[in-house]
Amino acid sequence: MDFTTLTIEALKMLASFVGNYGIAIILLTLVVRLFLWPLNVSQQRSMRMMQTLQPKLKAIQDRYKNNPQVMQQKMMEFYKEHKFNPMGGCMPLLIQMPIFILLYSALMSPQFIQIAGDSQFLFVKSLATTLRATAGISNDGVMGASKYDTFILGKTARVFLPTETLENVKVTKPNKALEIQGDLVPGENIDFKVSLDNLDLKFSQLDQIQKAEMAVTDVNTKETETITFERKDGLLVASVPSVEVKHAFHFDVLILILLFGLTMWLSQKLMMSMSQSQANNSDPTQAAIQKSMGTFMPIMILATFVIIPIPAGVLLYLITSNIVQVAQTVIVNKQMDAEDAAKKVKAKDSNDKVIDAEIVDDNKKGK
Questions:
Q1: Last-in-domain residue among 244, 268, 303
Q2: pLDDT at 211
Protein backbone atom coordinates (compact mmCIF):
# COMPACT_ATOMS: atom_id res chain seq x y z
CA MET A 1 0.00 0.00 0.00
CA ASP A 2 1.51 3.35 -1.09
CA PHE A 3 1.36 6.65 0.80
CA THR A 4 -1.41 8.03 -1.41
CA THR A 5 -3.61 5.05 -0.58
CA LEU A 6 -2.76 5.38 3.12
CA THR A 7 -3.78 9.06 3.04
CA ILE A 8 -7.09 8.20 1.36
CA GLU A 9 -7.73 5.44 3.88
CA ALA A 10 -7.08 7.90 6.72
CA LEU A 11 -9.57 10.33 5.18
CA LYS A 12 -12.12 7.52 4.76
CA MET A 13 -11.74 6.56 8.41
CA LEU A 14 -12.18 10.17 9.59
CA ALA A 15 -15.13 10.70 7.23
CA SER A 16 -16.83 7.60 8.61
CA PHE A 17 -16.81 9.26 12.06
CA VAL A 18 -17.81 12.79 11.06
CA GLY A 19 -19.89 11.98 7.99
CA ASN A 20 -18.20 14.46 5.63
CA TYR A 21 -14.91 14.47 3.72
CA GLY A 22 -14.54 18.25 4.11
CA ILE A 23 -14.62 17.94 7.90
CA ALA A 24 -12.30 14.92 7.59
CA ILE A 25 -9.73 17.07 5.75
CA ILE A 26 -10.01 19.75 8.48
CA LEU A 27 -9.50 17.11 11.20
CA LEU A 28 -6.50 15.68 9.33
CA THR A 29 -5.05 19.20 9.14
CA LEU A 30 -5.54 19.69 12.88
CA VAL A 31 -3.83 16.37 13.59
CA VAL A 32 -0.87 17.36 11.41
CA ARG A 33 -0.63 20.82 12.97
CA LEU A 34 -0.88 19.36 16.48
CA PHE A 35 1.96 16.99 15.63
CA LEU A 36 4.04 19.91 14.31
CA TRP A 37 3.10 22.30 17.14
CA PRO A 38 6.38 21.88 19.13
CA LEU A 39 8.45 22.40 15.97
CA ASN A 40 6.47 25.52 15.02
CA VAL A 41 6.85 26.91 18.55
CA SER A 42 10.57 26.27 18.23
CA GLN A 43 10.51 28.12 14.90
CA GLN A 44 8.86 31.18 16.46
CA ARG A 45 11.30 31.20 19.36
CA SER A 46 14.15 30.85 16.89
CA MET A 47 12.86 33.84 14.91
CA ARG A 48 12.57 35.97 18.04
CA MET A 49 16.06 35.04 19.19
CA MET A 50 17.36 35.82 15.69
CA GLN A 51 15.84 39.30 15.92
CA THR A 52 17.36 39.79 19.38
CA LEU A 53 20.81 38.71 18.20
CA GLN A 54 20.65 40.57 14.89
CA PRO A 55 22.46 43.77 16.05
CA LYS A 56 25.40 41.73 17.40
CA LEU A 57 25.51 39.60 14.26
CA LYS A 58 25.56 42.74 12.14
CA ALA A 59 28.45 44.07 14.24
CA ILE A 60 30.39 40.85 13.54
CA GLN A 61 29.64 41.11 9.82
CA ASP A 62 30.74 44.74 9.68
CA ARG A 63 33.92 44.09 11.64
CA TYR A 64 35.07 41.12 9.55
CA LYS A 65 33.51 42.03 6.20
CA ASN A 66 36.93 41.91 4.51
CA ASN A 67 37.71 38.45 5.88
CA PRO A 68 34.80 36.06 5.10
CA GLN A 69 36.49 33.03 6.67
CA VAL A 70 37.02 34.74 10.00
CA MET A 71 33.51 36.20 9.81
CA GLN A 72 32.05 32.72 9.34
CA GLN A 73 34.12 31.35 12.23
CA LYS A 74 33.08 34.18 14.57
CA MET A 75 29.43 33.79 13.63
CA MET A 76 29.55 30.03 14.33
CA GLU A 77 31.17 30.74 17.69
CA PHE A 78 28.47 33.32 18.39
CA TYR A 79 25.70 30.83 17.53
CA LYS A 80 27.31 28.18 19.74
CA GLU A 81 27.70 30.62 22.63
CA HIS A 82 24.00 31.53 22.50
CA LYS A 83 22.88 27.95 21.73
CA PHE A 84 21.18 29.14 18.54
CA ASN A 85 20.63 27.08 15.40
CA PRO A 86 20.04 29.37 12.38
CA MET A 87 18.43 26.48 10.47
CA GLY A 88 16.04 25.57 13.30
CA GLY A 89 13.23 27.64 11.81
CA CYS A 90 13.32 25.73 8.51
CA MET A 91 12.45 22.30 9.93
CA PRO A 92 8.62 22.77 10.08
CA LEU A 93 8.61 23.93 6.45
CA LEU A 94 10.68 20.93 5.35
CA ILE A 95 8.26 18.56 7.10
CA GLN A 96 5.08 20.26 5.88
CA MET A 97 6.07 20.26 2.20
CA PRO A 98 5.95 16.44 1.77
CA ILE A 99 2.59 16.41 3.61
CA PHE A 100 1.22 19.01 1.18
CA ILE A 101 2.49 17.04 -1.84
CA LEU A 102 1.06 13.81 -0.42
CA LEU A 103 -2.38 15.33 0.17
CA TYR A 104 -2.32 16.97 -3.27
CA SER A 105 -1.51 13.62 -4.89
CA ALA A 106 -4.22 11.87 -2.87
CA LEU A 107 -6.99 14.35 -3.73
CA MET A 108 -6.00 14.37 -7.40
CA SER A 109 -5.88 10.57 -7.60
CA PRO A 110 -8.56 8.46 -9.30
CA GLN A 111 -9.02 6.57 -6.02
CA PHE A 112 -10.21 9.67 -4.16
CA ILE A 113 -12.32 10.87 -7.09
CA GLN A 114 -14.10 7.50 -7.17
CA ILE A 115 -15.01 7.50 -3.48
CA ALA A 116 -15.42 11.19 -2.68
CA GLY A 117 -14.87 13.33 -5.75
CA ASP A 118 -18.45 14.61 -5.64
CA SER A 119 -18.41 15.28 -1.88
CA GLN A 120 -19.65 18.75 -0.92
CA PHE A 121 -18.65 20.96 1.99
CA LEU A 122 -20.40 24.21 2.86
CA PHE A 123 -20.41 26.23 -0.40
CA VAL A 124 -17.88 23.91 -2.12
CA LYS A 125 -19.65 21.66 -4.62
CA SER A 126 -16.82 19.16 -5.11
CA LEU A 127 -13.64 18.67 -3.08
CA ALA A 128 -11.81 17.31 -6.15
CA THR A 129 -12.68 20.25 -8.41
CA THR A 130 -10.07 22.80 -9.45
CA LEU A 131 -10.64 26.38 -10.57
CA ARG A 132 -11.34 25.64 -14.24
CA ALA A 133 -11.90 21.89 -14.33
CA THR A 134 -15.21 20.22 -15.07
CA ALA A 135 -15.61 16.97 -13.16
CA GLY A 136 -17.38 14.33 -15.21
CA ILE A 137 -19.88 11.79 -13.91
CA SER A 138 -17.91 8.63 -13.11
CA ASN A 139 -19.05 5.10 -13.94
CA ASP A 140 -22.02 6.13 -16.09
CA GLY A 141 -20.74 4.26 -19.15
CA VAL A 142 -20.01 7.45 -21.12
CA MET A 143 -16.68 9.27 -21.01
CA GLY A 144 -16.95 13.05 -20.86
CA ALA A 145 -14.03 14.49 -22.77
CA SER A 146 -12.59 17.48 -24.60
CA LYS A 147 -10.43 17.35 -27.71
CA TYR A 148 -7.04 17.55 -26.01
CA ASP A 149 -7.76 15.51 -22.87
CA THR A 150 -5.36 12.80 -21.74
CA PHE A 151 -6.16 9.52 -19.98
CA ILE A 152 -4.46 7.19 -17.52
CA LEU A 153 -5.11 3.67 -16.29
CA GLY A 154 -5.71 2.61 -12.71
CA LYS A 155 -2.92 0.81 -10.88
CA THR A 156 -4.59 -2.60 -10.96
CA ALA A 157 -6.74 -4.64 -13.33
CA ARG A 158 -9.09 -7.61 -13.20
CA VAL A 159 -7.88 -10.16 -15.75
CA PHE A 160 -10.01 -12.98 -17.17
CA LEU A 161 -8.30 -16.25 -18.16
CA PRO A 162 -10.10 -19.33 -19.55
CA THR A 163 -10.11 -21.11 -16.18
CA GLU A 164 -9.80 -18.31 -13.59
CA THR A 165 -10.14 -14.61 -12.88
CA LEU A 166 -7.13 -12.75 -11.49
CA GLU A 167 -7.86 -9.83 -9.17
CA ASN A 168 -5.65 -6.81 -8.53
CA VAL A 169 -3.16 -7.50 -11.30
CA LYS A 170 -0.58 -4.74 -11.24
CA VAL A 171 -0.48 -2.39 -14.23
CA THR A 172 3.08 -1.26 -15.00
CA LYS A 173 3.49 2.40 -15.89
CA PRO A 174 -0.26 3.22 -15.73
CA ASN A 175 0.44 6.81 -16.84
CA LYS A 176 1.86 5.62 -20.16
CA ALA A 177 0.21 2.25 -20.76
CA LEU A 178 -3.00 3.59 -22.32
CA GLU A 179 -3.06 4.78 -25.94
CA ILE A 180 -5.78 6.24 -28.15
CA GLN A 181 -6.22 4.79 -31.62
CA GLY A 182 -6.89 7.52 -34.14
CA ASP A 183 -8.04 11.02 -33.23
CA LEU A 184 -10.00 11.98 -30.13
CA VAL A 185 -13.31 13.46 -31.30
CA PRO A 186 -15.64 14.28 -28.38
CA GLY A 187 -19.11 12.91 -29.04
CA GLU A 188 -17.75 9.91 -30.92
CA ASN A 189 -16.42 6.61 -29.55
CA ILE A 190 -12.91 6.72 -28.09
CA ASP A 191 -10.82 3.73 -29.14
CA PHE A 192 -8.34 2.71 -26.45
CA LYS A 193 -5.58 0.13 -26.62
CA VAL A 194 -3.23 -1.38 -24.03
CA SER A 195 -0.27 -3.66 -24.63
CA LEU A 196 -0.42 -7.01 -22.83
CA ASP A 197 3.12 -6.37 -21.61
CA ASN A 198 1.76 -3.65 -19.32
CA LEU A 199 0.18 -6.31 -17.11
CA ASP A 200 2.48 -7.79 -14.47
CA LEU A 201 1.87 -11.46 -15.28
CA LYS A 202 3.88 -14.46 -16.35
CA PHE A 203 4.31 -15.02 -20.08
CA SER A 204 2.15 -18.15 -19.93
CA GLN A 205 -0.65 -16.12 -18.33
CA LEU A 206 -0.34 -13.26 -20.81
CA ASP A 207 -0.88 -15.75 -23.62
CA GLN A 208 -4.21 -16.86 -22.07
CA ILE A 209 -5.76 -13.45 -21.41
CA GLN A 210 -9.24 -13.13 -22.87
CA LYS A 211 -10.24 -9.74 -21.51
CA ALA A 212 -9.52 -7.34 -18.67
CA GLU A 213 -11.39 -4.72 -16.67
CA MET A 214 -9.44 -1.53 -15.93
CA ALA A 215 -10.27 1.91 -14.59
CA VAL A 216 -9.63 4.71 -17.09
CA THR A 217 -9.44 8.27 -15.77
CA ASP A 218 -9.60 11.50 -17.76
CA VAL A 219 -6.76 13.55 -16.30
CA ASN A 220 -8.53 16.81 -17.13
CA THR A 221 -12.11 16.14 -16.00
CA LYS A 222 -11.19 13.57 -13.30
CA GLU A 223 -13.95 11.29 -14.56
CA THR A 224 -13.27 7.57 -14.11
CA GLU A 225 -14.92 4.74 -16.01
CA THR A 226 -14.39 1.02 -15.47
CA ILE A 227 -13.88 -0.32 -19.00
CA THR A 228 -13.78 -3.88 -20.29
CA PHE A 229 -10.92 -4.41 -22.74
CA GLU A 230 -11.19 -7.33 -25.20
CA ARG A 231 -8.17 -9.11 -26.63
CA LYS A 232 -7.53 -8.47 -30.32
CA ASP A 233 -4.34 -8.96 -32.37
CA GLY A 234 -2.15 -9.23 -29.27
CA LEU A 235 -3.60 -6.08 -27.69
CA LEU A 236 -6.36 -5.21 -25.26
CA VAL A 237 -8.79 -2.85 -27.00
CA ALA A 238 -12.00 -1.05 -26.07
CA SER A 239 -14.35 1.42 -27.74
CA VAL A 240 -16.05 3.80 -25.30
CA PRO A 241 -18.83 6.28 -26.14
CA SER A 242 -18.01 9.88 -25.26
CA VAL A 243 -19.77 13.18 -24.81
CA GLU A 244 -18.20 16.60 -25.22
CA VAL A 245 -17.72 18.60 -22.04
CA LYS A 246 -16.76 22.24 -21.69
CA HIS A 247 -14.55 23.55 -18.93
CA ALA A 248 -16.30 25.85 -16.49
CA PHE A 249 -15.07 28.47 -14.04
CA HIS A 250 -15.78 27.45 -10.43
CA PHE A 251 -16.38 30.47 -8.21
CA ASP A 252 -16.51 28.31 -5.08
CA VAL A 253 -12.87 27.32 -5.69
CA LEU A 254 -12.00 30.98 -6.37
CA ILE A 255 -13.46 31.89 -2.97
CA LEU A 256 -11.23 29.24 -1.36
CA ILE A 257 -8.17 30.66 -3.17
CA LEU A 258 -9.01 34.17 -1.93
CA LEU A 259 -9.54 32.86 1.62
CA PHE A 260 -6.17 31.16 1.43
CA GLY A 261 -4.55 34.44 0.32
CA LEU A 262 -6.26 36.35 3.15
CA THR A 263 -5.23 33.87 5.86
CA MET A 264 -1.69 33.73 4.50
CA TRP A 265 -1.45 37.54 4.45
CA LEU A 266 -2.72 37.68 8.05
CA SER A 267 -0.17 35.07 9.13
CA GLN A 268 2.65 36.96 7.39
CA LYS A 269 1.51 40.25 8.94
CA LEU A 270 1.58 38.76 12.45
CA MET A 271 5.03 37.32 11.92
CA MET A 272 6.30 40.64 10.56
CA SER A 273 4.84 42.62 13.46
CA MET A 274 6.58 40.26 15.85
CA SER A 275 9.89 40.76 14.03
CA GLN A 276 9.56 44.54 13.92
CA SER A 277 8.68 44.78 17.62
CA GLN A 278 11.78 42.81 18.52
CA ALA A 279 14.18 44.51 16.14
CA ASN A 280 14.24 48.20 17.04
CA ASN A 281 17.72 48.58 15.55
CA SER A 282 17.16 46.37 12.54
CA ASP A 283 18.65 47.15 9.14
CA PRO A 284 16.22 49.40 7.22
CA THR A 285 17.02 47.55 4.00
CA GLN A 286 16.23 44.20 5.61
CA ALA A 287 13.01 45.58 7.07
CA ALA A 288 11.97 46.86 3.63
CA ILE A 289 12.67 43.45 2.09
CA GLN A 290 10.58 41.70 4.76
CA LYS A 291 7.72 44.13 4.20
CA SER A 292 7.82 43.57 0.43
CA MET A 293 7.89 39.80 0.86
CA GLY A 294 4.96 39.94 3.29
CA THR A 295 2.96 41.90 0.71
CA PHE A 296 3.92 40.22 -2.53
CA MET A 297 4.37 36.61 -1.41
CA PRO A 298 0.61 35.98 -0.94
CA ILE A 299 -0.07 37.66 -4.29
CA MET A 300 2.52 35.48 -6.06
CA ILE A 301 1.13 32.29 -4.52
CA LEU A 302 -2.43 33.32 -5.40
CA ALA A 303 -1.37 33.84 -9.02
CA THR A 304 0.33 30.43 -8.99
CA PHE A 305 -2.80 28.74 -7.65
CA VAL A 306 -4.86 30.34 -10.42
CA ILE A 307 -2.54 28.76 -13.01
CA ILE A 308 -1.82 25.41 -11.30
CA PRO A 309 -4.92 23.22 -10.74
CA ILE A 310 -5.21 22.93 -6.94
CA PRO A 311 -8.18 20.80 -5.76
CA ALA A 312 -10.68 22.41 -3.41
CA GLY A 313 -9.80 19.83 -0.73
CA VAL A 314 -6.13 20.86 -0.75
CA LEU A 315 -7.13 24.53 -0.50
CA LEU A 316 -9.30 23.62 2.49
CA TYR A 317 -6.24 22.00 4.09
CA LEU A 318 -4.11 25.10 3.44
CA ILE A 319 -6.73 27.52 4.79
CA THR A 320 -7.18 25.49 7.97
CA SER A 321 -3.41 25.26 8.37
CA ASN A 322 -3.07 29.05 8.02
CA ILE A 323 -5.81 29.67 10.60
CA VAL A 324 -4.04 27.36 13.06
CA GLN A 325 -0.77 29.18 12.30
CA VAL A 326 -2.37 32.54 13.09
CA ALA A 327 -3.77 31.24 16.39
CA GLN A 328 -0.44 29.66 17.29
CA THR A 329 1.46 32.86 16.49
CA VAL A 330 -0.79 34.89 18.79
CA ILE A 331 -0.63 32.35 21.63
CA VAL A 332 3.12 31.80 21.50
CA ASN A 333 3.84 35.53 21.13
CA LYS A 334 1.84 36.23 24.29
CA GLN A 335 3.76 33.49 26.10
CA MET A 336 7.11 34.88 24.98
CA ASP A 337 6.07 38.45 25.87
CA ALA A 338 5.14 37.24 29.35
CA GLU A 339 8.48 35.44 29.67
CA ASP A 340 10.38 38.56 28.56
CA ALA A 341 8.41 40.72 31.03
CA ALA A 342 9.18 38.26 33.84
CA LYS A 343 12.89 38.35 32.94
CA LYS A 344 12.87 42.15 33.02
CA VAL A 345 11.17 42.18 36.43
CA LYS A 346 13.66 39.63 37.72
CA ALA A 347 16.59 41.63 36.36
CA LYS A 348 15.18 44.83 37.90
CA ASP A 349 14.75 43.11 41.27
CA SER A 350 18.33 41.86 41.10
CA ASN A 351 19.62 45.35 40.30
CA ASP A 352 17.54 46.84 43.14
CA LYS A 353 18.98 44.29 45.57
CA VAL A 354 22.50 45.10 44.43
CA ILE A 355 21.85 48.84 44.88
CA ASP A 356 20.30 48.26 48.31
CA ALA A 357 23.27 46.17 49.35
CA GLU A 358 25.67 48.90 48.21
CA ILE A 359 23.72 51.54 50.18
CA VAL A 360 23.78 49.40 53.31
CA ASP A 361 27.49 48.82 52.86
CA ASP A 362 28.15 52.54 52.42
CA ASN A 363 26.11 53.32 55.55
CA LYS A 364 28.14 50.86 57.56
CA LYS A 365 31.36 52.39 56.33
CA GLY A 366 30.05 55.86 57.19
CA LYS A 367 29.42 54.82 60.77
A1: 244
A2: 92
